[in-house]
Amino acid sequence: MPKCRSLKHLSSLSILLLLATSLAWAANLQVQLDRNRLTVQDTLTLRLIADGTTSGEPDFTPLTQDFDILGRGQSKMTSIVNGAMSHTRQWTLELAPKRTGALSIPSLSLGNARSQSLTVEVTESNGGGAEDGSRPIFLEADAETKAPYVQQAFEYRVRAYFQDEPLRATLSDPLADGATVERIGEDRGYEEFVDGQRYLAIERRYRVIPNRSGPLAIQGPRLEAVVPDTRAGRQHDPFADLDQAFGGTLFQGFPQMQGLGNPGRRLVDRAGDLEIQVRAQPDGSGTPWLPATSVQIADEWTPSQPTFRVGEPLTRTLTVTAQGVTAAQLPTLDLGTLDGVQVYPDQPQSEDLSGESVPTAIKSFKIALVPTRAGPLTLPEIRLHWWDTVADEPRVAVVPARTLEVAAAPSGGAGPSPVIEATTGSEPTGSAESSPDATRQPRSPAHPGIGTTGFWPWLTLLLGLAWLGTLVWWRRERRSRLTVTNPIQEAQDRRAASLNAARRQVEKTCLAGDARAARAALLDWAHARWPDHAPQGLSELANRLGGEEIGDLLHVIDRAIYAPPGEVWDGAAAWQTLAPWLGGATRDAPARADDPLPELYPRT
């Protein structure tokens, strides 16, 4: 019995020793750094090594206080030495410091195990080892204004500078809580000298619209770039000496192989954060609130010189053009109350114009008017309140009131209809020489039982009725046959007439040099060409037509509308280019040679 008890105690002790060894082995968590001193533009490689059997993932959140985690990887390794098996897990992180100074690598945890804490010294960039002390990369950011109004769009610009062309580069977007940030346009590249050093500059623009008043913090973007490493003793090419022995031409023309030669140096830079103070809407600024740099309202009619007549429809188009805002910010116009006219408004069409130096938006309101009574017709004044962000004062865009004279509807068309005397069934009128008694006494029949005129008038009447019935039947059959056999052709004819009329209106406005009217006529042509899904703007029309030349021309028309006074748009030259693109009406629906009716709009 004593021997058995001693064996049990020995076994229990061995198990406890194994458990303690296992726990101690699993608790070994180490942090390794590839360097403890670096510049603010360099990156740091951190390795977290866990020996033993572990589960779960470490918490790297404490690192984000002073570092950006650019990348991470994980590996596992199992080894057997002298019959003993060991397990190792390793996490590799690439870190970029957010600031200079002594930065702490805090203790990291995995389960119950914790690593040691370390300190890294981060210094200012000294040009990356360049002899002239220039910086290999850097970022700059600025805003168009530092005190915008709420909902006022302003531009935020970022410029990335590279001393040498990068092998690859990535630029993040700025962040702003409480504002909408949207990238606009394409990146623009140019060369610029900074402190006497030539740099390749890349400029990127953003549109920022604050949603609330108060302080607005814009977090600057981060630039990650891999640039050629020009530092001495870095990444020596193993074949460089051999190539030098042959005069530097041995490997000339050979492609660079991955992993050989100079892989480049990874650098990171950040643009400084900006603090923007957003102003609230001023008191008495009016509703709706529209902060802009320019607002105009154009009033156009179709036809361009309308005649107001009872029952005849006219189309009025009001176009709001605003700079410094987006189309979503443009309000709906209050057209007032019209008396003596029926109003049929279309759905408003809004569009943001691309390619402009400042954000420009338009919104069109098309209204069909049908006068219901003759006499004076008053169109009330239309007012749109807006805030001039340049002069910092309220303004009003006004369409003045107009009083028009509505003519009465024409009576029966070209003129009064002539009076036609009825002759069927009337008795003959006596001559001037006939006596009064002749009207009282019946004439003596020439033939008993038939009358003085005989049977020929009755036969003529019967034949006439038969001929009239045949004519009515023939016309009905012919009309029915045309209706049944030609509905598609008739629809094509109507569509061709509409396209031809719209095309002639485009020609007329272009030759008149009226860019705004030409734009409206082009959209009317597009509506006739694609009635079910018409383009909403000239940019969409250019995409629908599918030509780079027509896209450039339509963009010129858009720009001509908002050109400063004194600039003349060459509408005649524009029409020479437009005409072939708008000539598809007759090809889509050719006119029939045997059409019984002439064209509604004959071509001139």
UniProtKB/TrEMBL annotation:
Residues 1-26 form the signal peptide. The keyword Coiled coil does not apply. Residues 500-580 form the DUF7939 domain. Keywords: Membrane, Signal, Transmembrane, Transmembrane helix. Residues 408-449 are annotated as: Disordered. It comes from Thiocystis violascens (strain ATCC 17096 / DSM 198 / 6111). This is DUF7939 domain-containing protein. Residues 423-442 have a biased composition (Polar residues). It holds the Pfam family BatD. The chain crosses the membrane at residues 455-474. The keyword Metal-binding does not apply.
